[in-house]
Amino acid sequence: MSTRLEPTKNRARAAPTRAQDPEGTRQNIIEVAAQEFALNGLSGARIDEIAAKTRSSKRMIYYYFGSKEGLYLSALENAYRQVREGEAQLDVAGLPPLDALKRLVEFTFDHHHQHEEFIRMVMIENIHHGEFLERSGVIRELNVTAIGNIEAIYAKGLADGVFRPGLDPLEIHWQISALCFFNVSNRATFSKIFGKDVGSPAAQASLRQQAVEMVLRFVTRPDQLP
Amino acid sequence: MSTRLEPTKNRARAAPTRAQDPEGTRQNIIEVAAQEFALNGLSGARIDEIAAKTRSSKRMIYYYFGSKEGLYLSALENAYRQVREGEAQLDVAGLPPLDALKRLVEFTFDHHHQHEEFIRMVMIENIHHGEFLERSGVIRELNVTAIGNIEAIYAKGLADGVFRPGLDPLEIHWQISALCFFNVSNRATFSKIFGKDVGSPAAQASLRQQAVEMVLRFVTRPDQLP
DNA sequence: AGGAGAGTACGAACTAGTTAGTACATTTGC
DNA sequence: GCAAATGTACTAACTAGTTCGTACTCTCCT
């Protein structure tokens, strides 16, 4: 009837057929999808394009994720998970508060810098008013613990008398995020408007150090400043 | 041959035909387009949708702007122009450096807050790696003068001995932008992750004041701090 | 003064190509 | 043998852009 399947048997024996690997297929699809969504946005990304770059097929995308939006949500969740896992690597427990906060800012700065794809996913999600993030129970759980670090550092800094009272750890987190996030998210327009590549290693080193300074000066008690 | 044009004459006489208004039509299209692009992104916005919300028609969009991208570019340029014109309202020439910088940060914070549509356009443009901004000669001209204010303030602050030396006005602008931009751009995800509406008046007031403090503490000579 | 032309402004219907999603058949691993 | 996993071919709806035709406005000629 049809000839299109004839080579199958041969292929099956010629090379050890790629075993069925649901989890691998799923993961592969998600990774490709994340790239495409991060690059083109939700509406800009093309399912056919994603499928083509996959080791799998369009059929499988719908088999596993149901719809384009389902795929986007999974990719978003995956991105958050990866990044939070990376952040969990940071350990500042033993450090004095000032050093700990410095490390935290540096780490966040570098981490955001290294995960541009994640930053772009968050930008895109904000364009969509965070509606997919809202639908996802998973993501909120991942993030609530993210301020734990700052809370601990701030508490210790207060106790030691080096930080000033009255600050909200969530707001400190907000400010660190602002400085580190903007550095990646707005690099393109900023560089092009002012004709200076703020992504260059020299510029980044300077901005990084200044981000640290800003946060430390903000949190430190004035009489503790050098 | 065709019947579809029969009603034309009647229509022409029945109601006093709306006068031709090229500039008005153009402007109306751009305003609607900006809204739609800001809401849905370049690929997410629909020409038919834009046309429908216009007082004009799809035909006119292509008549005036040539293509979807042409329309997007015009909307982007318009957004930048509007915002920069608004910023030009700020006059801090007479103020002492510290007060001037404080005003500048407050003004930027408020201005970004009030121009969410513009912020979203910039976000979208960053998703596109600033390629349209690059194509536009207009926009760069508008912006290069934007740091003029900071340069003047910083120079005066140095002369008065209240600011510390060695800072780059462009980097100060970068930091102010980061704090004020992030406040609008990432409100959705931030609020949803931490279950707190950072857009509420109370939260905004606090973040605003802290943005001012951060910048002032960063720029001020330590021995000049209260 | 007024009418012919020309260029500008506008509208409705159409089209070619794209795109998310599906029906159906087949294979693989247990 | 059976359920989960996968491949191929298709479609219905959408979407950027176009075609063809009309109406308005200004100018310039006489």
Low-confidence sequence ranges of chain A:
1-18
Structural class of chain A: mainly alpha
Which chains make the largest contact?
Answer: A-B, 58 and 58 residues
Strand content of chain A: under 5%
| Quaternary structure of the protein | homodimer
CATH topology of the domain at 76-224 in chain A: Tetracycline Repressor, domain 2
The number of E-state strands of chain A comes to 0
| Architecture per CATH nomenclature, i.e. the level-2 architecture of the domain at 76-224 in chain A | Orthogonal Bundle
General shape of chain A: elongated
State the major sheet of chain A.
none
Mean of residue pLDDT values of chain A: 89
In words, what does this structure look like?
The structure is a homodimer of 226-residue chains. By secondary structure, chain A is an all-alpha fold. Chain A has a domain at 76-224: Tetracycline Repressor, domain 2 (Orthogonal Bundle). Helices cover 73% and strands 0% of the residues of chain A. Chain A contains 13 helices and no strands. Chain A has helices at 7-14, 22-44, 47-53, 58-65, 68-87, 97-114, 116-127, 131-135, 137-144, 148-160, 169-185, 187-194, 201-219. The radius of gyration of chain A is 23 Å and the shape is elongated. The termini of chain A are far apart. The model of chain A is unreliable at 1-18 (pLDDT under 50). Chains A and B meet through helix 2, helix 7, helix 9, helix 11 and helix 12 of A and helix 2, helix 7, helix 9, helix 11 and helix 12 of B. The structure holds a DNA duplex (30 and 30 nucleotides).
